[in-house]
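F.,

This is the one I mentioned.
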């Protein structure tokens, strides 16, 4: 990696973005969520672009958690693969600068993240189905189901098990079940958070899922497909943020996505916004139905393995969903959907999320999407 790297700021990014912008850059603002990277919007009087730059540390944890900037290269490589399989569903990449670990993208200035729309109870039609089709296309299209073995093995070599995979391993599968310094939780649920560490069945399920995450290199997955990794406006939805991409298990992306929808649903329930809860239920159902439908469309529907493949996929997704729900309550990175609630609603939603996560991880295998969803958001789960 080149030594010519310097972190950009709102002044230096003007010069950096100039070649990619119609007109003279006049203004830049930092718009990132603060977890990992610097993200700037740079404007001229006629146009705007987004510049995303990797920092040499995990921003949310401060410079005490160093990370290489290689994730920018992983993101650029994954975008290349995923946009061929799901054309039009990613932002257009304008440029990748290796030395600066920076990507320049088209500015989706009229879009907001799906998480923001969910928090604001703003319905956006079509988003769930689009994300379902995206998942089916990239999961099947980079797996041995559709990609010829030799091509797949060549592609596999470009995606190492990266440092960000280690971050996921730690934050999702390990830290919530230990007294880890990175954990964060409200005092109102401290007893429940601490009980996770003494729950042998749950710790064993988490260890098993961590092993799956590390060893099942089934498809080139997104690796961090929560509702903040989706940008939407009426009629147009795009998937963003590919730095966590790696060859991993089929069920991980759908599990993470469904978990984040479940957390939104629990937040709206706790706030008494039942009309929007019903909309989130519909999104979750539409997401899974679109994914299953697209799998059928892409794969020979008379393939005898098809039905068993889908059931196994759903079971896999349900267990990863359980892990994601728990870590977004007691781990380092929380779901704003729930954290933005005032008490006591926040603790109610957190309690139900831990219960939903446990039910998904410890219950009998789910058979239908409805089983999965009922466990994730049901009122009668144990916590
Ligand atoms: C790396 S910081 C914490 C979280 O933010 C990312 O979006 C991933 O979800 C990660 O676990
Ligand atoms: Mg992200």
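My design for it:
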């Amino acid at each position: 990696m080149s030594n010519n790297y310097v972190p950009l700021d709102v002044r230096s990014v003007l010069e950096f973005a100039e070649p990619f912008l119609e007109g003279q850059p006049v203004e830049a603002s930092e718009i990132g969520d603060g977890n990992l990277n610097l993200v700037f919007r740079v404007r001229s009087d006629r146009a705007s672009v987004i510049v995303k730059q990797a920092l040499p540390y995990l921003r949310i944890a401060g410079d005490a958690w160093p990370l290489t900037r290689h994730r920018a290269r992983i993101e650029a490589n994954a975008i290349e693969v995923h946009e061929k399989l799901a054309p039009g569903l990613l932002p257009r990449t304008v440029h990748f600068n290796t030395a600066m670990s920076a990507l320049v993208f088209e500015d989706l200035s009229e879009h907001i993240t799906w998480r923001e729309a969910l928090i604001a109870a703003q319905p956006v039609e079509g988003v769930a189905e689009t994300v379902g089709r995206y998942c089916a296309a990239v999961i099947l299209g980079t797996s041995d189901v559709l990609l010829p073995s030799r091509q797949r093995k060549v592609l596999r070599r470009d995606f190492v098990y990266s440092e960000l995979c280690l971050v996921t391993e730690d934050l999702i599968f390990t830290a919530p079940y230990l007294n880890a310094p990175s954990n964060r939780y409200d005092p109102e649920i401290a007893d429940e958070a601490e009980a996770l560490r003494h729950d042998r069945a749950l710790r064993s399920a988490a260890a098993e899922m961590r092993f799956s995450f590390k060893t099942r290199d089934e498809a080139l997955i997104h690796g961090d497909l929560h509702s903040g990794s989706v940008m939407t406006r009426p009629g147009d939805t795009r998937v963003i943020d590919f730095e966590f991409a790696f060859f991993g298990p089929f069920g991980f992306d759908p599990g993470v996505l469904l978990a984040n929808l479940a957390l939104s649903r629990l937040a709206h329930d706790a706030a008494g916004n039942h009309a929007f809860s019903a909309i989130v239920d519909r999104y979750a159902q539409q997401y899974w139905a679109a994914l299953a439908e697209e799998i059928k469309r892409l794969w020979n529907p008379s393939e005898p393995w098809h039905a068993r493949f889908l059931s196994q996929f759903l079971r896999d997704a349900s267990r990863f969903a359980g892990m994601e729900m728990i870590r977004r309550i007691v781990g380092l990175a929380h779901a704003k959907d729930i954290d933005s609630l005032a008490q006591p609603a926040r603790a109610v939603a957190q309690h139900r999320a831990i219960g939903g996560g446990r039910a998904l991880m410890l219950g009998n295998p789910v058979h239908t999407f409805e089983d999965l969803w009922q466990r994730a958001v049901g009122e009668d789960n144990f916590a």
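The chain has a mean pLDDT of 95.

Talk soon.
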